[in-house]
Every structure is written in structure tokens, then in C-alpha cells.
Amino acid sequence: MDSRRARSTPRPERATASLREGVYDSLPIVIGYLPVAFAFGLNAVKLGFTPLESLFISCIIYAGASQFVITTLLSAGISLWVAALTVMAMDMRHLLYGPTLRHRIVGKLSKGKTALWAFGLTDEVFAAAIAKLTKENRRWSENWMIGIAACSWISWVIGTAVGALCGNGALAAYPAVEAALSFMLPALFLSFLLAAFQRRQSLVLALSLAGSLAGLLLLSIPMAILAGIGGGCLGALIRTGVDRQAATDPERR
Amino acid sequence: MNINVIMIGLVVGAANYIFRYFPLRFGRASRQKSVAGGWTARILDGIGIASICSLLVVSSVPGVIRDSEKLLPTLVGFAVLTICFYRTRSIVLSTLAGALSFGLVYKFFITIIFT
Fold it and tell me: Are B62 and A219 in contact (CB under 8 A)?
């Protein structure tokens, strides 16, 4: 009886998410980033870069796949500007992240804080922000973003340094741990997807899945991401058209 | 440090920052009334979920294609994660539970294959 009454009373609105919550929520990203950054550091040194150079790339570029591509292209003797343009084309998808977040953020953004957390707006941090904004829109805060972005960046840099300095073999004796760490990023994206998904977005999800799978099998990984986003946009357009038609069709109404 | 590395780091780093910061800085703020209806609002809503879905595909499928023995651990990992998420609603716990299940099933598989 009491519990039923407690359930029926409106819950007080919780305060906005703090920096500390951001640090806690960054935990799966941190655990996911460490092995990937470790692999980058290791790979860069193998390709002939010094540990300092690989650390510099991780600190300043801070974009997983792009860093692997840059080191591979440069070590293969490809011209500097071709390598730069290739990687910039890969990272163009980040242009979509800002408007998507801004569309969901209620209220004004602080210039200084936004400039800070925008640096750390990677794919994983973006997915975490979308999940937070979908679940608890009013609780999203820039301090929470700074917490999650800063911890993710620090773990990326530490992972690179350890990979570049220690070399391979640290986890060779523990294949289960190595495998579990390699699964952190897919697991993380599925968690974010479950947190952000709403039933009305089923068509968007289905077309995005079809687009990214087709892009992956027929083209390349960067193109698969763009194809998935394109499929999702198409789904959103179809859904909007159907909804509008239903709203104007007197028989359906 | 090689000058080429410094140059490419600065150019690509600056471009990445511009891609991440400027659309946020100059993007249109949320207008609650438009969220449900407009074309732009629906597309922006769709981009969020579509990006996460695409990133899930590109982070999981290539590994399974390359190494088919990862298929079962991947499916088990995703199943445990989904159940854990709907029970706890915690991203942190469900991600860790999913990764742990993947590691254990993978280890079990390796033991069977190599013994």
C-alpha cells in the first residue's frame, strides 16, 4: 500500500548531473579506450614513430581510426597533405554531432566550457551524450560532459603511452582478458543504443543497420558509418512523411 | 620529433576541433515545440541513433568476419548486456557484464579448440 502511494507521488526533479557523475559514467569508455590506445601506441612504434611522436598524435588529433590511418599512410611514404586530407574526410562525420546534440540540449551553452568538452567529442563521448540527453534531458550538464570527455582523453593518452613504451606481450598470457577488452567498444555502443532507443525510431534503426552493413560489406569502414547515418536520415524522412500524411488524412483521423 | 608529424598533427588536430566545436557553437539551440514535428528536427533526432547504430556495426562486425570463432561470444555478450541493461538500466554495469561474458565464453571456446 505504502509503496503504491510512494509510486503515485511525483518524483522531485533531480539536480543536473555533476562532474563527478561524468567521471563515473566515463568508466566504460575509459576501459574501452585503454586497449585500443595501447594498440595504437604499439603499432605506431612498430611503424617507426618514436614514443613521443605517437603520444603527440594521440594528444592532439585524438581520433582512434584516423590515428591508425595517419601512421600507416605516413610510414608508407604517402605525401603529408594526401594523408591529412584522407583523415579529414574520414572525420567529417563529426560535423553532424554538434547540431544533433545542440538540437537536444535545453538552455544556453557556456562558451568556455563548450570549447573545452568539444575537443573531446569523440564517437563514444557523443554516444554517451545522446544516451544521457534521451534518458534524462534536464539532467545533462556541461560539467558532466567535461568529466566524461576529460577522463576519456586521459585514458586515451595513458593507453598510447603504455603501448608505445612497454610494447607487446603484456596481455598475451591472458587471452580472455584481452578478448574482453577488445569487446568493450561494441558493448559500449550497444549500451548507448539501448539507452537512447525509442520505439518510434524503429525504422531509423532498421535502415541505419542496413546502410552500415551494406557499406561495410561493399565499401569501407568510414563509408559504412556515413551509409548508416544516411540510412537513418532516410528512415527519419519516411517516418515524418507517413506521420504528416496520417495527420492530414481525414479517414485515418 | 619529425617536422612532418608535427605538421600533420597540428593540421588534422585543428580540423577535428573545428568539426567538433563550430557546429555546436553556431548550431541552433533546442526548441521543444519543434522536437516532435519538423523535418530538420526529425532528421537530427535520427542522426543520433543512426550514428550509434553504425558505430556498433563497424566496431563489432569486422571482428566477427575476420575471426568466426568470435560469433558465439559476441552473441552471448550482447544477450547478457541487453538483459542486464533492462534489469539495472545502468550503462556501466551492463557494458562490463557484456564484456566479461564475451571474455569468458571466448576463453571457454579457446580451451575447447586447443584441448
Answer: no
Q: Give the ipTM.
A: 0.81
Do the Cβ atoms of A196 and B56 come within 8 Å? no
Q: Which residues on A lie below 8 Å from B107 (Cβ)?
A: 175-176, 179
Closest CA relative to residue A184, chosen from B27, B41, B77, B44 = B77
Helices (H), A47-200: 51-60, 64-75, 80-90, 94-104, 111-119, 123-135, 142-166, 175-182, 184-196
Instruction: Tell me if residue A47 falls in helix, strand or coil.
Output: coil
- As a whole number of angstroms, the distance between CA A22 and CA A151 comes to 9
Q: What nine digits make up the cell of B11?
A: 593540421
State the Cα–Cα distance between residues A152 and A145, nearest whole angstrom.
11
Q: Could you read off the pLDDT of A175-199 as tens digits, one per residue?
A: 777 777 778 778 878 988 888 787 8
CA atoms within 13 A on the CB side of A163: 25
Closest C-alpha among A188, A197, A200, A203 to residue A234: A203
Across the interface, whether the CB atoms of B30 and A104 are under 8 A apart is answered: yes
A176–B91 C-beta distance less than 8 A: no
Task: Tell me the pLDDT tens digit for each residue of A65-78.
Answer: 788 778 877 877 77
A135-152 pLDDT, tens digit each: 887 888 999 999 999 999
C-alpha cell at A149: 570527455
For chain B, list the strands marked E by DSSP.
none
Q: Name the phi and psi angles at B37, rounded to 5.
A: -105, -65
